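Here is one chain, start to finish.
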Amino acid sequence: MSRPRSAESHAAILQAALELVVDGGLQGTTIEGIAARAGVGKATIYRRWKTKEELFTEALRGIAVGLPDPDTGSLREDVIALTAFNLEHMPRKAALLMPRLMVEAADDPELFAVMREVLVEPRRNVLKAILKRAVERGELRGDLDLEDVVDLLIGPLIYEILITGADMAKVSQLPARILEMALEGLAPTPASRARARHPPAA
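Its structure:
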């Protein structure tokens, strides 16, 4: 009987940590507050985690879902599929959490490293793989810096989350529009195709 209760309290503690960080940021979150929200004693928390940062790191890893790598043969369809998956599996509170944490992480190298490892880099890497295939298919110019293109496509989504208060219905309408506009500047031109066929001599 003790193990189910233990697992239940463990989950409640992680959930409480996420909720309180969304509400007040990591700096404003305390072990006392987490214990009260989860309905456990502080000793229960300290037996499992030494610090609130360690606790929150585990909570953050718990909400990070594995990402698909769609390969439909179309850049537009791949990006739309990836974004739709992200939005479908990202509750509103989780969408609000990321910008708040990135601000706090600017002054906390350990938190910043966890954020990049758990939430940022996996998403960037999948998108870069999609973009690389699009370059190979000739849908994008070969001289593009893919890191810049990732910023171009993700940045508007983060901004939309911030200015709409994470209204996910509005956010979900954005990717297709942004991609259509971006492709006008990212698609190969006659000049870029000519450079690809005849690169300048070294």
